[in-house]
Amino acid sequence: VALVLATLTLARSEEVTHHQEKRGIVESYSANEYAHHGIPIAQTVEVTKQVPVPVIKYVGIQVPVAVPHPVAVPVPQPVPVHVQVPQPVPVPVIKTVAVPVERPVPIPVEKHVPVYLEKHIPVPVEKPYPVHVPVYKHIHHYPAKIYRVHHGWH
Prior knowledge:
Layout: H1 2-23, H2 25-28, H3 41-44, H4 144-151
């Protein structure tokens, strides 16, 4: 697995380096061709010295990589096996048989059922008794309205 990863890393780094050289990215570190609004790099950035871009190359050993290929998978087939299969066993079934039984015939019997009656019992209520009230004949009662009209009350 480590050899496969090393090989893939080497191939990827060589591919990236090739694309950088193809697009001119290595040269663009010193001369900016795509500066903002076409201003030369000397006016925007002070360049002191050219810096080489390190290109790392990995030397690897060629490792044979497995290529996917069709693999034959065996399909399971039925195989005769000597197994004793249990045979059905007769089971006795108990049946319920109805036996006729003589039942007594019901005879109607008259029963006296008590009947409840609502009886009205008089409740003694105290009645008012006459009381002697003296009536004074010299006192007269006049309604207030008549009294106001005749005597000048307003």
